What does this fold into?
Amino acid sequence: MEKHGNTGIFRMQLVRMATRAEFKIACVLSFLFIVLAFVEECCSQWGADQSDLYTAASGWVGNITQVMGVTLQAFYLLAISLIAALPFADSFLEDRKSHNLASVLVRTTWGAYRRTGIFLSFAGGFLVILAPLLVSQLLSFLLFPATGGKIEGYASWGAWMFSPTLSEAYVFPYLLLNHPYLHNLVFIFYASLFGGMNAVASYLLSLLGVHKKLLVLGLPAVFWLCYDLLLTFINPSLIFEIYLYPNDSVFKQPWFFFALPLCMLAVLLLGAAAAKRYRTEAALQ
It folds into this structure.
């Protein structure tokens, strides 16, 4: 039988991901967090004078330390690793468990199958974070004015932002002041990138011999929780979570903002290289 290349297996796996119950569950959970966060903010702003409202940029629920929301904080802790991995990261385990892998590999190559799984794991994880966060920014326009508002109206706010010390609490303070919506989009895409990379990490764990679905989906989340706990006592400015959304909780390290995804990419490439050496015969066992 003639084997199909990347295009054929990609189309098949893309349709499979879009119809999987796990993908639908991930979407529902992500949007549920966003809706609850918006309701939480509506309740917190109930009865507020119009002059005391934020702008839609500043009042976006993703500005957690500013709007004092807890729902989105839980979203970042759970969705970035666990929910992002649901759409496709366990597909290889599912194929092995259902004994479908052999029939799939008859029609394609092991390399095409592996590359497609890595790409769709990333795409699924990226999308289930990106889409709800974009919707959350749009929802802010239902509650807050697009311009004006409390933050932009403060004459002292610019001086506070660019003081020699407090401006260090933001990675991009000038972008925050001059282009606040673009500033939010930077963090929305950054968090989505992080979710996609974590999904790839889960998929690679399954390729490298982790056979339990709970471990495949949960190990990256456990790693980041342990990482944050350790860095809380060593150097709080390197806690990964505070770089996923705009906040002024501690002074930030701009170099770390760019180094973190690059380091993750390097680890994923090493994992992909190791998975490439994993023989098809071993995968079928």
